[in-house]
C-alpha cells in the first residue's frame, strides 16, 4: 500500500469528499522541490519558495507549539498550511484539544500525502 493510499484510508473515515477531490487532482500545476535544511531535515519548496524555516523546521514546530497559551482538552488548534507536517506532528504528539488543519493548496496536499505518513495522526483525529 502506498503512503497516499494509507493516508487517504484514514482520511476517508472522516471526509470522503476530500479524499475524492484529492484523488481527482492528478495534475500538479506548481513546481516542487525537496532540499535539506541546515538541521538536516527536509524542506519543501513551492515555486522556489520554502514552506518551512530553512534552518530548523522541527524546532520551528516546537516553538509554535510552545507558544500555545491554553493547552487543555477544550482547546481548538487551527493549523494553517500543512507543508511537510512538522507542526501537525508536533501538535498531534502534545496538544490536548482538537486540531484542525487547513491546507488551501490542493497541489501541496496531494503531494505531501504521497510522501509523508500521516496515518497515525489522522487516526487520532478521526
Topology:
Layout: H1 3-12, H2 16-24, E1 32-36, E2 42-46, E3 49-50, H3 57-66, E4 76-80, H4 86-94, E5 98-102, H5 106-115, H6 119-125
Parallel strand pairs: 4-5
Antiparallel strand pairs: 1-2, 2-3
Q: Strand order, biggest sheet?
A: 1-2-3
Note the main sheet: 3 strands, antiparallel
Shape summary: globular
- The helix-and-strand class reads alpha+beta
Secondary structure: number of strands: 5
Report mean pLDDT, rounded to a whole number: 93
Tally of helical segments: 6
End-to-end gap? 20 Å
What percentage of the residues does DSSP assign to strands (E)? Answer: 15-25%
Summed up, the domain count is 1
> Residue ranges: pLDDT <50 for 5 or more in a row?
none
Instruction: Note the run of SSEs as H and E.
Output: HHEEEHEHEHH
Structural Rg: 15 Å
How helix-rich are the residues, as a percent range?
Answer: 40-55%
Descriptors:
126 residues; alpha+beta; three-stranded antiparallel beta sheet; two-stranded parallel sheet; 6 helices; 5 strands; globular
